[in-house]
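I am writing to request your help with a piece of structural work I have in hand. Here, with my thanks, is the record as I have it:
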Amino acid sequence: CDFIFRLKGILEFACQLDNSNGAQSQSTISKSFQDLRSKVSSKNIVFTVCNSPVLIWPNAGFQSSVESLTEASACGDILHVCTGLVEALNKQLADMEEVVLRYRKGSSFLVPQPFHFQLPKPAGLITVIYPAGVPDSQLQAVREDLHRKFKLPCDRPYLRRANAFHFPDAAYKDGYLRNPHIHLNPPNIEDAKLYLVQGVYSYHHYMQDHVDDNGWGCAYRSLQTIFSWFQQQGYVETAVPTHTQIQQALVDVGDKEPRFVSSRQWIGSIEVQAVLNQLLGVTSKIMFVSQGSELATKGRELANHFQTEGTPVMIGGGILAHTILGVVWSENTGQIRFLILDPHYTGGEDLQTITDKGWCGWKGPEFWDQNAYYNLCLPQRPKTI
C-alpha cells in the first residue's frame, strides 16, 4: 500500500509540472521509480506472512520467528521465495514506469494497474501492467505482443482484465457462486475420460436478484450462467442480462411480440441461441434429440464440444431446462455421466447444500425423460484475443 501511495504522489507531482517541461516531468518520474526500486532492494524492506507471526527481512538475511530460519532448515525455501519476490517487485515497478511514460499525454498521466494471470505451462503465473482507464478494446496490440512472448494461442483471451487470477481467499462482490462443480469428484467409470467446461462461470438459479421466477425461469437462469461465462472469460464487458432484458432482446430480433416483455413465458434452446447472438454476437450450434434415451449416445459430440469450445451447454426439453458442464465418457463402452448445474434450486448460495443435494452433480442417462424431446444449445467461442 505504501508503494501505491508513493506512486500516486509521483503522478500528482508530475501533473503539476508545466506542459513545456515534458523532459523534466519524465526525468522526475524515472528518478522516483528508481527511488522506489532502491527501497525494495534495501535492507529495510520487511515481508509478513499472512495469518502467521513470521517476519522476514529478505535483503538482510534475517528472520524473526519462533525459531530462526536458514537455508538448511525445514522452511529454508522461504528465503528463495523472498528473493524471487524482491526481483518480481522490482520488475513490476520497472513495467509501471514504462506504462506511465508510454501513455502520458502532456501533463496527463494514467495510473498503472497490475494484473496477475495464470497462464498454461510453462509460463505459469505472470503479472502484466495495464493503464487505468484504457479499455481492453484499445490494448489489442499489447495483448498480441504478450501472446507471442508467452507462445499463447491467438484464438482466445488469456490476458484481458476479466482473465485475471482470482486468489482463493478473495470474495466475489456480486455474491454469486463460481464453479461449484470443482468441489465434486468425477464418477469412476473404467476407461472413461473427463471433459469439462473451461474457465469460470457464475451459478444462476431460481429466486435470485429479487426475482420470483420459480416454475418458469429455468432457461433464463441457464442463459445467465452461459452469459456469465463469456463475461468472465473476457469476451465481453456487458453485464449479465435480466429476465426483462432477455425478453426485450427476443422482441428486438423479431422472435416475440412486444407483450412478451415482463411476462412469465418460458423460453427454450432456440431462444437462448437467439439472445446470445443478439446481445453478444455469439453463434451456437443446436443439437436436436427426439427422445431423452438418445442422449446416452451423444458422448462423442459433447466430449468434443467441451474439449474444443469449453462453454456451458443449455439443454431444454418439455418444461425443464438445465445446464451441462461436462461429461465423463468412455469411447470404448459408451458409458456416460453428465455434470448438471440445475437452475431450479431456490435456496441461498450455500455451496455444501448445492453439492450435497445434487443441485450441481453428476447424473446418469436415466436423469433425462426417456421419451421427451430435447434441444441442446452449444455456444461457440469467438476467435479473438
About this structure: Residues 97 and 123 are 23 Å apart (CA to CA). The longest helix spans residues 77-102.
